[in-house]
Amino acid sequence: MTRRRGRARGRNIHGILLLDKPVGMTSNAALQTVKRLYRARKAGHTGNLDPMASGLLPICMGEATKMSAFLLDADKRYQGVCKLGVRTSTADAEGEVVETRPVVGIDEARVREVLASFTGRIDQIPPMHSAIKHKGQPLYKLAHQGLEIERAPRTVEIYELNLVRFDGDELEIDVHCSKGTYIRTLAEDIGEALGCGAHLSSLRRTLAGPFRIEDSVALAELQHLAEDGDPGPLDALLLPMEAALTEWPALDLTENTAYYLRQGQPVLVPRAPTSGWVRLFAGEHCFIGVGQILDDGRVAPRRLVESAPPEGRRARP
Length: 317
Prior knowledge:
This protein is an alpha+beta fold. The chain folds into 3 domains: about 15-75 and about 210-235, Pseudouridine synthase; about 75-205, Pseudouridine synthase; about 240-305, Archaeosine Trna-guanine Transglycosylase, Chain: A, domain 4. Helices cover about 20% and strands about 35% of the residues.
């Protein structure tokens, strides 16, 4: 008996949703909820937020998932609260308390001095409760077994580290940082530098690449918009896939050069930049992917997408 192959389920929809993830939900659970509300065939998020964290979680749908790697590499911004005097097993509020120390002799001047010492390129030792793998196993799974593995330090960059509030045993900080920065680890290290220990008690992501929390939408609002079954209001919230790359130069291609690029061949484009990454358009507003300038000045295709009209708001200036 021959089984009939089922067709892929869901709408073939393309775009980026800026979700304000609520506290208490994993990033994957948020992704799956959004995917269900949109009835999207394909979707992926662009950088994990812990369940205790809230804030900006860009979700890519359809062909926009091909742009997700660039958002993973993008700089981020967070607002976090450090609880002084208490260290936990996970360096955040979800872990067990492992040490308490008095918070004495610390004033705002000392706090600002310590924060300044963490600005710039710094080394961090990734926490055991992280998704980094050791011999194929995520560290957090080993941590749950009571194991601790030696981890090599990683270099990250803190562009800005501002004090928002200092209130006795709490510090609220605003952090603009490179990819791979663990704010939990930063909070713990700040506590050690202050001599009292600390853990991260709350966290909110406010920026990811070109996207800002002010432009995001709450999950409850999405659920409300989805109630009547009309996808139009949901689709209107989507950004076109090239919105992730608005800082890159845009190149308008002729029909001929677009054809050869789609065949995987580098092409010469008049007035193209001399180096770096570029957005590629075939005709007005028809985004076809991204390319990179070669040493000889030609534009090489790097990640091409199927041409699709943007579902919601425009990105290109």
